[in-house]
Amino acid sequence: MDDWEDLKIIRSILQLLKAWSLRLQSKNTNKNRANGFIAEVIPAMDELLAHLEEAKIQYSDPEVYNPHIITSIQLAWSLLDKYYSLTDLQPALYTAVALHPDMKLKYFEDEWKSRPEWIETATSIATNLWQRDYRNHSIDSIEPSVNPPTSTPSTVLDGTLPRWKQKKQARLSMDDGRHDQFQRFQSNSDEEEDIPDLIQFWREHLDTPR
Known about the structure:
The protein has 210 residues and is mainly alpha-helical. It has one domain (3-134, 141-204). It has helices at residues 3-24, 41-58, 67-85, 91-98, 106-111, 116-134, 163-166, 181-187, 198-204.
Protein backbone atom coordinates (compact mmCIF):
# COMPACT_ATOMS: atom_id res chain seq x y z
CA MET A 1 0.00 0.00 0.00
CA ASP A 2 1.15 3.56 -0.66
CA ASP A 3 1.52 6.33 1.91
CA TRP A 4 -1.79 7.97 1.01
CA GLU A 5 -3.69 4.79 1.76
CA ASP A 6 -1.88 4.47 5.08
CA LEU A 7 -2.84 8.04 5.96
CA LYS A 8 -6.49 7.37 5.09
CA ILE A 9 -6.52 4.39 7.44
CA ILE A 10 -4.85 6.35 10.23
CA ARG A 11 -7.34 9.18 9.78
CA SER A 12 -10.30 6.81 9.94
CA ILE A 13 -8.97 5.30 13.17
CA LEU A 14 -8.33 8.68 14.79
CA GLN A 15 -11.69 10.24 13.89
CA LEU A 16 -13.55 8.67 16.80
CA LEU A 17 -10.78 9.62 19.22
CA LYS A 18 -11.02 13.24 18.05
CA ALA A 19 -14.81 13.23 18.30
CA TRP A 20 -14.79 11.92 21.88
CA SER A 21 -12.03 14.35 22.88
CA LEU A 22 -14.07 17.30 21.64
CA ARG A 23 -17.24 15.95 23.22
CA LEU A 24 -15.63 15.57 26.64
CA GLN A 25 -14.32 19.14 26.31
CA SER A 26 -17.78 20.29 25.17
CA LYS A 27 -16.21 21.57 21.96
CA ASN A 28 -18.17 19.42 19.56
CA THR A 29 -20.58 20.71 16.96
CA ASN A 30 -23.65 20.31 19.19
CA LYS A 31 -24.07 23.89 20.42
CA ASN A 32 -26.83 22.93 22.86
CA ARG A 33 -24.53 20.92 25.13
CA ALA A 34 -23.79 23.02 28.19
CA ASN A 35 -20.67 21.19 29.33
CA GLY A 36 -18.59 18.07 29.15
CA PHE A 37 -19.89 15.32 31.45
CA ILE A 38 -17.55 13.40 33.75
CA ALA A 39 -20.10 10.57 33.47
CA GLU A 40 -19.01 10.05 29.87
CA VAL A 41 -15.34 9.33 30.62
CA ILE A 42 -15.87 5.59 31.15
CA PRO A 43 -18.30 5.21 28.20
CA ALA A 44 -15.75 7.03 26.04
CA MET A 45 -12.98 4.64 27.07
CA ASP A 46 -15.24 1.63 26.52
CA GLU A 47 -16.14 2.74 23.02
CA LEU A 48 -12.59 3.71 22.06
CA LEU A 49 -11.13 0.42 23.30
CA ALA A 50 -13.78 -1.50 21.34
CA HIS A 51 -12.99 0.67 18.31
CA LEU A 52 -9.28 -0.18 18.57
CA GLU A 53 -10.05 -3.87 19.08
CA GLU A 54 -12.03 -3.87 15.85
CA ALA A 55 -9.24 -1.99 14.07
CA LYS A 56 -6.66 -4.57 15.25
CA ILE A 57 -8.70 -7.29 13.57
CA GLN A 58 -9.47 -5.28 10.44
CA TYR A 59 -5.86 -4.28 9.72
CA SER A 60 -4.05 -7.37 11.02
CA ASP A 61 -3.06 -8.87 7.65
CA PRO A 62 0.60 -7.83 6.94
CA GLU A 63 0.22 -8.95 3.35
CA VAL A 64 -2.40 -6.26 2.80
CA TYR A 65 -1.68 -3.50 5.31
CA ASN A 66 1.49 -1.78 6.45
CA PRO A 67 2.74 -3.54 9.64
CA HIS A 68 3.32 -0.11 11.19
CA ILE A 69 -0.44 0.41 11.31
CA ILE A 70 -1.17 -2.61 13.49
CA THR A 71 1.81 -1.71 15.70
CA SER A 72 0.43 1.80 16.18
CA ILE A 73 -3.03 0.45 16.99
CA GLN A 74 -1.60 -1.92 19.59
CA LEU A 75 0.40 0.91 21.19
CA ALA A 76 -2.70 3.13 21.28
CA TRP A 77 -4.73 0.32 22.85
CA SER A 78 -2.06 -0.29 25.49
CA LEU A 79 -1.89 3.39 26.43
CA LEU A 80 -5.67 3.74 26.67
CA ASP A 81 -5.89 0.53 28.70
CA LYS A 82 -3.27 1.94 31.09
CA TYR A 83 -5.40 5.01 31.74
CA TYR A 84 -8.52 2.87 32.01
CA SER A 85 -6.91 0.86 34.82
CA LEU A 86 -6.46 4.11 36.76
CA THR A 87 -10.21 4.74 36.93
CA ASP A 88 -10.36 2.50 40.02
CA LEU A 89 -8.49 5.29 41.83
CA GLN A 90 -11.22 7.83 41.00
CA PRO A 91 -14.55 6.86 42.64
CA ALA A 92 -16.21 9.90 41.09
CA LEU A 93 -15.94 8.35 37.61
CA TYR A 94 -17.99 5.30 38.56
CA THR A 95 -20.38 7.32 40.70
CA ALA A 96 -20.99 9.85 37.94
CA VAL A 97 -22.19 7.01 35.70
CA ALA A 98 -24.33 5.55 38.51
CA LEU A 99 -25.98 8.93 39.12
CA HIS A 100 -26.51 9.81 35.48
CA PRO A 101 -30.28 9.50 34.86
CA ASP A 102 -29.74 7.91 31.46
CA MET A 103 -27.11 5.37 32.53
CA LYS A 104 -27.15 4.42 36.23
CA LEU A 105 -25.58 1.13 37.37
CA LYS A 106 -27.46 -0.50 34.51
CA TYR A 107 -24.74 0.83 32.20
CA PHE A 108 -22.15 -1.45 33.81
CA GLU A 109 -24.51 -4.43 33.73
CA ASP A 110 -25.17 -3.92 30.03
CA GLU A 111 -21.68 -3.05 28.82
CA TRP A 112 -19.55 -5.27 31.04
CA LYS A 113 -21.52 -8.52 30.90
CA SER A 114 -18.37 -10.51 30.24
CA ARG A 115 -16.58 -8.86 33.19
CA PRO A 116 -18.69 -9.51 36.31
CA GLU A 117 -15.77 -8.56 38.54
CA TRP A 118 -15.72 -5.09 36.91
CA ILE A 119 -19.46 -4.70 37.53
CA GLU A 120 -18.98 -5.66 41.18
CA THR A 121 -16.12 -3.17 41.59
CA ALA A 122 -18.00 -0.29 39.96
CA THR A 123 -21.17 -0.98 41.95
CA SER A 124 -19.25 -1.26 45.21
CA ILE A 125 -17.28 1.95 44.63
CA ALA A 126 -20.32 4.02 43.64
CA THR A 127 -22.47 2.67 46.48
CA ASN A 128 -19.77 3.14 49.11
CA LEU A 129 -19.19 6.73 48.05
CA TRP A 130 -22.93 7.42 48.38
CA GLN A 131 -23.13 5.74 51.78
CA ARG A 132 -20.02 7.45 53.14
CA ASP A 133 -20.34 11.01 51.85
CA TYR A 134 -23.81 11.77 50.56
CA ARG A 135 -26.57 9.61 52.05
CA ASN A 136 -27.13 11.96 55.00
CA HIS A 137 -26.17 15.11 53.17
CA SER A 138 -28.96 17.72 53.07
CA ILE A 139 -29.53 19.81 49.98
CA ASP A 140 -30.37 23.39 50.92
CA SER A 141 -30.55 24.87 47.47
CA ILE A 142 -29.23 24.53 43.96
CA GLU A 143 -28.90 27.55 41.77
CA PRO A 144 -30.51 27.12 38.35
CA SER A 145 -28.34 27.02 35.28
CA VAL A 146 -28.34 30.16 33.20
CA ASN A 147 -30.33 29.73 30.01
CA PRO A 148 -30.40 25.90 30.10
CA PRO A 149 -30.18 24.40 26.61
CA THR A 150 -32.98 22.50 25.03
CA SER A 151 -32.58 18.75 24.70
CA THR A 152 -31.11 17.53 21.44
CA PRO A 153 -29.78 14.12 20.39
CA SER A 154 -26.36 13.39 21.88
CA THR A 155 -23.94 12.47 19.11
CA VAL A 156 -20.29 11.51 18.93
CA LEU A 157 -19.40 11.06 15.28
CA ASP A 158 -21.36 11.83 12.12
CA GLY A 159 -24.67 11.98 13.93
CA THR A 160 -24.14 8.56 15.55
CA LEU A 161 -25.18 8.04 19.14
CA PRO A 162 -22.57 6.77 21.61
CA ARG A 163 -22.30 2.99 21.47
CA TRP A 164 -23.64 2.52 25.00
CA LYS A 165 -26.76 4.47 24.12
CA GLN A 166 -27.33 2.44 20.97
CA LYS A 167 -27.15 -0.81 22.95
CA LYS A 168 -29.10 0.45 25.93
CA GLN A 169 -31.66 -2.00 27.27
CA ALA A 170 -34.82 -1.67 29.37
CA ARG A 171 -34.44 -0.26 32.86
CA LEU A 172 -34.65 -2.19 36.10
CA SER A 173 -38.02 -2.84 37.73
CA MET A 174 -39.77 -0.12 39.72
CA ASP A 175 -38.89 0.51 43.36
CA ASP A 176 -40.71 -1.56 45.98
CA GLY A 177 -40.48 1.21 48.60
CA ARG A 178 -37.93 -0.47 50.86
CA HIS A 179 -34.76 1.19 49.58
CA ASP A 180 -32.91 4.42 50.26
CA GLN A 181 -32.67 7.26 47.73
CA PHE A 182 -29.73 5.78 45.84
CA GLN A 183 -31.41 2.38 45.50
CA ARG A 184 -34.73 3.94 44.48
CA PHE A 185 -32.97 5.98 41.82
CA GLN A 186 -31.18 2.90 40.46
CA SER A 187 -34.37 0.83 40.30
CA ASN A 188 -36.53 3.48 38.63
CA SER A 189 -37.35 2.32 35.12
CA ASP A 190 -38.18 5.67 33.52
CA GLU A 191 -36.47 6.17 30.17
CA GLU A 192 -34.84 9.59 30.03
CA GLU A 193 -34.22 11.63 26.92
CA ASP A 194 -30.77 13.01 26.21
CA ILE A 195 -29.83 15.41 29.01
CA PRO A 196 -27.84 18.45 27.87
CA ASP A 197 -27.62 20.05 31.34
CA LEU A 198 -27.37 17.72 34.36
CA ILE A 199 -27.60 20.54 36.92
CA GLN A 200 -30.83 21.77 35.38
CA PHE A 201 -32.18 18.21 35.29
CA TRP A 202 -31.58 17.63 39.00
CA ARG A 203 -32.92 21.06 39.90
CA GLU A 204 -36.19 20.19 38.17
CA HIS A 205 -36.36 16.83 39.99
CA LEU A 206 -35.59 17.97 43.54
CA ASP A 207 -39.21 17.75 44.70
CA THR A 208 -40.22 14.63 42.78
CA PRO A 209 -40.71 11.22 44.47
CA ARG A 210 -37.53 9.82 42.87
